[in-house]
Amino acid sequence: MFKLTRERVIIVEKIDDSGIDLLKSKFDVDLKIDMTREELLDVIQDYDAIIVRSATLVNSELMEKGKRLKIIGRAGNGIDNIDIPEATKRGIIVANTPDSNSISAGELAIGLMFAQARNITKADKSMREGRWDRNKFEGTELYGKTLGIIGLGRIGSLVATRMKAFGMDAIAYDPYITDERFEQYDVKKCETLDELLKIADFITIHTPRTEETIGMISYNEIEMMKKGVHITNAARGKIIDEKAAYEGLKNGKIGSMGLDVHEKEPRHESPLYEFDNVVVTPHIGANTVSAQQNVGKTIAMQVINGIRGEIVPNAVNLPVIHRDELKAVKPYIDMMEKIGKLYYQLFKDAVKFVEINYWADASKFDVDMVNIAFLKGLLEPIKKDKVNYINAKVLAKKSGIGIKFKKYEENYNNYSNLINVKITDVNMKQYTFSGAISMKREGILVEMNGYKMDVTPSEKMIILKNKDVPGVIGKVGTLTGKDGINVATMHVGRKTKGDTALMILNVDEAVSKDAIKDFVKLDEILWARAIEL
Ligand code: NAD
Ligand code: MLT
C-alpha cells in the first residue's frame, strides 16, 4: 500500500554517515546533535525512532512524550542511559550494537595502559614545553606483570588475549560466567574481587555500569591493592569512586590511572587532573573509523527492522538470538505469527490458554521468540498495531491468556519439524492448528481442527467450511469469478467422506464483506471468512 508520509527518525548523537545514508533511503531523517533536553522533549512526539549514544538519557519522561516511538537505537554498546523496563512496558524496542565497537574499546584500554606504563603523555607534554627529560620518564614493563581484568566479557576477553601476547599473566574476576570461559581465554579465575585486587600490578575494568558495579572500586578496594598499582577504566564512569581514587593517587598507593570514562560526562575539569600520572581521554573508546562505520550501519539496520515491525537481531528487550540461529529459526517465527493471526479472524471467543508443542527439528532451538511471534500474531487482529514482539507477552498476560510449550525430540507422524498449537477458549472449547517447514524453508499449514491440509498461506485468503457434497467447488469458483476475486490456489480437506470439509483459497485481492455474504448464502457453505495475514 502507498504511504503518504514516511516514518521519521531523529538522530541526537553523531553516528557515521553510512548509517545515516542507509536510514535516509527509507525514512525522513533529522540529524539534531546540538539539541537541548527541552528541545528534544518538545519534538520527540513526531518520531518513530530515536538514535542515541551514551549522552542522552532515554527515560520514562522522554518515552511518555514520544508516543510514536517504535524503537530506541543505541549506537554503541552500554545501555545504562536507557530505561529498558520502561521501554518494554511501552512496547518500544531497544537495540544496540554490542559487537561493533568492542575491538576499538579494547584497543583504547590497552593504549591507556601503555601510556600509563611508559609515561607517554607526560613525556609528550614535556617535549612540547621545550625540555629533553630523557632520564625523568622511567617506565615499567608490562612483560611478566599480572593483569587483573574485572569483567571477562567481549572487551575484557579481547584485552586478555592481546595482553597475554605481551607476556602478561592474566587473571580475572567475573562471577557471572562459566569456568569454561576462563579456560577458553587461558585466564586464571579469581573467586573474589579481593583476590584480584591483592595480586594485580595492572587492573583494567570491563563490566557494565550496574547498581552492583557503581563504586565497585572505592577506598577499601584501593587499600587492598599493591602499592604503585596501575588502574585503567574504559568501561563506564562511576565504577571507580573518583574521590577514593584521588586519595589513592595523593598517598602514592596508585601508580597511575587511565580513564576514558568519567563520573560526569562531558567533563571539563577534575581534581584528578592535578596528577600527571593520570591519563585521560574524553570517552573515545569507540571513536575509530572502523568501529563507527560498523556501529552506524548496524544501528541503521536495527532501526529499519524495528520500524517495519520485523525481527531486530540486537534487541536487548527480546530473547537474544544469534545471527546464525536467527536464519534457522526465522521460518518458524514467520509461520507461527501467521498461524496466530488465523484464530481471531476465524473464531470469536476469547482465548484462555495456548499450548504449543514443538516436534523433532522444530524443538532444537530456543523457542522463546517463536512463542512470542505466535502471541503477536494471535493478538494482532484484536489489538492492531498496539502489539509488537516486545509487548506481546505482557499483553497476552494482561488479557488473561496463559501459554505453555513442550518440546519432543521425535517426529510427529511423518513430519520432522512440526509445531502444533492447541488453543482453549474461555468456554473450554479447543481448536488446533499445525504447521511445518517445507523443503523451500516456507511455513505450511498442515492441519486445522483435525482437517488435514498442505497449504502455504498467502497474504489474503478465504477460509470456508462446507458440506462435503458434489458441486461445491464449482459453485465457489463461480462466485469468486462473479466477485472479481482471482484465486491463486484452492485446497479442500475433510475428515470423513460426506461430512464437512474445510476449503482454503489463496487469493490475490482483499475480499470484501459482500463477497463473504455471497458465499454463506450458498446452502452448502456453513461459514466463510476473509483472512489477511
Ligand atoms: P559484556 O557484557 O560483553 O561484558 C561484561 C562482563 O562483565 C560480563 O562478562 C559480565 O559477566 C561481567 N560483569 C557484570 N557484572 C560484574 C561484576 N559485578 N563483577 C565482575 N564482572 C561483572 O560487555 P562488553 O561489551 O565487554 O563491555 C564492557 C564495558 O565497556 C561496558 O560498560 C560498556 O558500556 C563499555 N564500553 C565502553 C566503550 C568506550 O567507548 N569506552 C565502548 C564500548 C563498550
Ligand atoms: C559504548 O558503550 O558503546 C561506548 O560508550 C561508546 C559510545 O557510546 O559511542
Layout of strands and helices, then pairs:
Layout: E1 8-11, H1 17-24, E2 28-31, H2 37-43, E3 49-52, H3 60-65, E4 71-74, H4 84-89, E5 93-95, H5 102-118, H6 120-128, E6 146-150, H7 154-165, E7 169-173, H8 179-184, E8 188-189, H9 193-199, E9 202-205, H10 219-224, E10 229-233, H11 242-250, E11 254-259, E12 278-280, H12 289-307, H13 323-346, E13 351-359, H14 368-383, H15 392-398, E14 402-408, E15 419-425, E16 430-437, E17 443-448, E18 451-455, E19 460-467, H16 472-482, E20 487-494, E21 500-507, H17 513-521, E22 525-532
Parallel strand pairs: 1-2, 1-3, 3-4, 4-5, 6-7, 6-9, 7-8, 9-10, 10-11, 11-12, 13-14
Antiparallel strand pairs: 13-15, 15-16, 16-17, 17-18, 19-21, 19-22, 20-21
Bound molecules: nicotinamide-adenine-dinucleotide (NAD) and D-malate.
Describe the structure.
With 533 residues, the chain is of the alpha/beta class. The radius of gyration is 30 Å and the shape is elongated. Helix content is 34%, strand content 23%. It folds into 4 domains: 1-99 and 288-317, NAD(P)-binding Rossmann-like Domain (Rossmann fold, 3-Layer(aba) Sandwich); 102-280, Rossmann fold (3-Layer(aba) Sandwich), CATH 3.40.50; 321-428, 60s Ribosomal Protein L30, Chain: A (2-Layer Sandwich); 458-532, Alpha-Beta Plaits (2-Layer Sandwich), CATH 3.30.70. The chain has helices at residues 17-24, 37-43, 60-65, 84-89, 102-118, 120-128, 154-165, 179-184, 193-199, 219-224, 242-250, 289-307, 323-346, 368-383, 392-398, 472-482, 513-521; strands at residues 8-11, 28-31, 49-52, 71-74, 93-95, 146-150, 169-173, 188-189, 202-205, 229-233, 254-259, 278-280, 351-359, 402-408, 419-425, 430-437, 443-448, 451-455, 460-467, 487-494, 500-507, 525-532. The strands form 4 sheets. The chain has a 7-stranded parallel beta sheet with strand order 8-7-6-9-10-11-12, sandwiched between helices. Strands 14-13-15-16-17-18 form a 6-stranded mixed beta sheet. It has a 5-stranded parallel beta sheet with strand order 2-1-3-4-5. Helix 5 (102-118) crosses helix 7, helix 13 (323-346) packs parallel to helix 14 and helix 14 crosses helix 15 (392-398). Strand 20 (487-494) and strand 21 form a beta hairpin. Nicotinamide-adenine-dinucleotide binds next to helix 5 and helix 7.
